[in-house]
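JOB MANIFEST
job_type = single_chain_structure
chain_count = 1
residues = 285
[input]
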Amino acid sequence: MADRPDDHWDRKVANGLAFLRRRLSGDYEVDEFGFDSELTDAVFHPLLRLLYRDWFRTEVSGVEHVPVDGPALVVGNHSGTVALDALILSAALHDKHPAHRYLRLLGADLVFRMPVVSEIARKTGGTVACNPDAERLLGGGDLVGVFPEGFKGIGKLYADRYKLQRFGRGGFVSAALRTGTPIVPVAIVGGEEIYPMLADIKPLARLLKLPYFPVTPTFPWLGPLGMVPLPSKWLIEFCPPIPTAHLTDSADDPLVVFNLADQVRETIQQTVHTLLERRPDPFGP
């Protein structure tokens, strides 16, 4: 016999109460980095799913390039004034990947110095962007996500949209080389339009100890409403993996590291251009 509608809601209520009971009693597990997979699945991913699926109408392609198991370093372009692209990428990858893999994001020190934000980052699988943590995660077979542009990427002006910034010293490449982990470049189009940054008030940023203080068409003019992202159309494409197992002895060779970082950056930049051609209207269907 088919379940009645009441049975469906009864199960939902029972599951919700069981979840609350486990949270209140502390009967749940986190790993050594503080990752709480149950909380991520029950709370954070459903919220992000509303954003990436319904608000941004995100299309994801190339997910077959992400390994079904074992480690990989997923390297993406960064943008959007607020680092929402990292969260959207992690949720979309988890939903679209056949093995529903979690992406362990590497974040800047600032993220882990902020109250509440730090706890959320840890609970959802994030950790500080440093080689020791990256290598431990990769050595444990995890998918690790990194955005080498850092604040230079998310804090650039709208006039410089979709122009990848410098990748720093290539620390992410060294981590991949030391663990023999494939690098999967990923291009994200759509993040630049959610909070178009028209200006950066540098004196105010220094006063508040922030990397930048953005001025957008809606912020700070509309107050809290200015934090609502504009509903741009997003495209995410995972590129074929770049193997590194044959280069493990070159992890400390600056030339090898630079060339590989430049290859990853150029792959992402070219894929971004291709996606922009497929999406001529930033706010189209």
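[summary]
Strands lie at 59-61, 72-76, 103-107, 127-128, 143-146, 183-189, 199-200, 214-215, 235-238.
The mean pLDDT is 90.
exit_status = 0
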